[in-house]
Amino acid sequence: MLLPLLSTVLLLTAQDPLAPGGPAATSRLTLVESSPVETTLDAPDLPQTADVWRGMIDGAKRELLLSHFYASTAPASPLNDVIEAIEAAASRGVRVRFLLAERFRKTYPELAERFGRVEGIDVRFIDFGEVAGGVMHAKYMVVDGAQSFLGSPNFDFRAMDQIQELGAHLVDRSIAAGLSRVFEMDWALAGGEPVPAGGEALAPVSLQLAAEQAGPDGAAAVRATLACSPQGHLPGGIAWDLPLLLELIDSAKARLRVQVLTYDATGYGGGYYDRLESALRRAAARGVRVEMLVADWCKRKGCVDGLQSLASLDGIDVRFAVIPEASTGFVEFSRVAHAKLCVADERAAWIGSSNWEGSYFMTSRNVSLFLEGAGVGARLARWFDVTFQGEYAEPVVPGKSYEPRRRQ
Questions:
Q1: How far is 89 from 120, CA to CA, in rounded Å?
Q2: Disulfide-capable partner of 364 in 21, 70, 77, 134 (CB 3.0 to 4.6 Å)?
Q3: C-alpha to C-alpha distance for 318 and 258, rounded to whole angstroms
Q4: Which SS3 state, helix, strand or coil, does residue 173 take?
Q5: Does the CA dihedral 157-170-357-283 come out positive or negative?
């Protein structure tokens, strides 16, 4: 049994987070995607990342918090409208703070420097190597303490229309408050300031799934829990996400769907990291059908060996997602499936920013959202199936030799 996630769902009403003092309204969840151009992966009922980000930022009145691995753009990208919206928000008096990983300060300096020159926008870089031995890898945004976004998309032009991504837009003050705690902790660490005192434990919240995504049965009640990594560097009241993810896997009774950019049980500290590996093997051993989709960036020594080992087991089906290059030509670090998703029996799910390697949970900053509800579980399962069962999927064959995919 998965606790506290898999408890009775009660759909609660609350004041509309976007209109304090206004009429009662239910907090809501909207699933969001990025679909690579010139593919068949676009889901008509899921809005695109750039559109959601732009809408959130355009509505900001007081405060905008952004935390990302890095920031990079290019001409003619949908991300440029988002960038201009951030600058416009600052010009109308919104306080904007942008937190980035020190790891990429020299690699992608232009956009951070551009933001730093705008009055009303503060930019900091955090060295999570000094903090915990990893990197700032989280991707999220909080607007006015009332709505938030988290998921797999980086603040990168490629993540808008050249990479498959998955995220969640949440209109809920509790989730926004939790992400704000994460942000304030890391903002203080980046500035060499005292870390804010912790708060009360963040309880699961009740949300309403967007009507167009609820499916024909109209099942829209969602129970959501926010968690993050790494252990030992968690804001007060925020749970560590790895134990909840393991409970989710262990709760599966019939079918488990997993999609990540990379999966590698040998990538943590040069040794074997068995927490996720063992959970997947336990699932298969008790008769659960395990389906795993990874990016073709995993066609490399070490990573592919572990995938082939899993694929050799009864009950585990592992496939590469292979997205062809666009007609406009090769673009480095693009045309890849970058989403992070796990669905157990179409009733509970995880969306996050972590790839499934030990360092993402043990030493790096990442954020996770755990969801329970028949409607959201079924919708995420269908989203996974489109790629896993579609034209871009290639089975991982035990014993086969693979050529590494060109990334740059």
A1: 9
A2: 134
A3: 9
A4: helix
A5: negative
Distance CA(192)–CA(179), nearest Å, equals 20
This prediction has a pTM of: 0.94
Residue 87, number of CB atoms within 10 A of its CB: 18
Contact assessment for residue 112 and residue 300, using Cβ atoms and an 8 Å cutoff: no
CA distances from 405 to 311, 330, 401 (A): 20, 12, 13
Query: Coil, strand or helix: which one is 19?
Result: coil
Q: Is the pLDDT of residue 344 over 50?
A: yes
Distance CA 349, CA 225 (A): 11
Backbone angles phi, psi at 242, to 5 degrees: -60, -50
CB-based burial label for 25 (10 Å; 0-12, 13-18, 19+) = middle
Residue that is written with structure tokens 């298969």 in the block: 284
Element (H, E) at 116: helix 110-116
At 275-301, the pLDDT tens digits run: 999 999 999 999 999 999 999 999 998
Q: Beta strands of 202-354 (E only): which ranges?
A: 205-209, 221-229, 239-240, 255-260, 263-264, 289-295, 316-321, 341-344, 348-352
| Alpha carbon distance, N-terminus to C-terminus of the chain | 44
Domains and CATH numbers, the chain: 22-395 (3.30.870.10)
Helix (H), strand (E) counts: the chain: 11, 23
CA angle, 83 as apex, 79 and 86 as ends, to 5°? 140
Q: Please state, in angstroms and rounded to a whole number, the distance separating the CA atoms of residues 242 and 105.
A: 28
| The residue to which tokens 């995420």 are assigned | 380
Cα angle, residue 141 at apex, residues 138 and 144 outer, rounded to 5°: 145
Residue 185 DSSP SS3: helix
Q: Where are the alpha helices (DSSP H) in 217-291?
A: 241-251, 275-285
Q: Above 90 in pLDDT, residue 5?
A: no
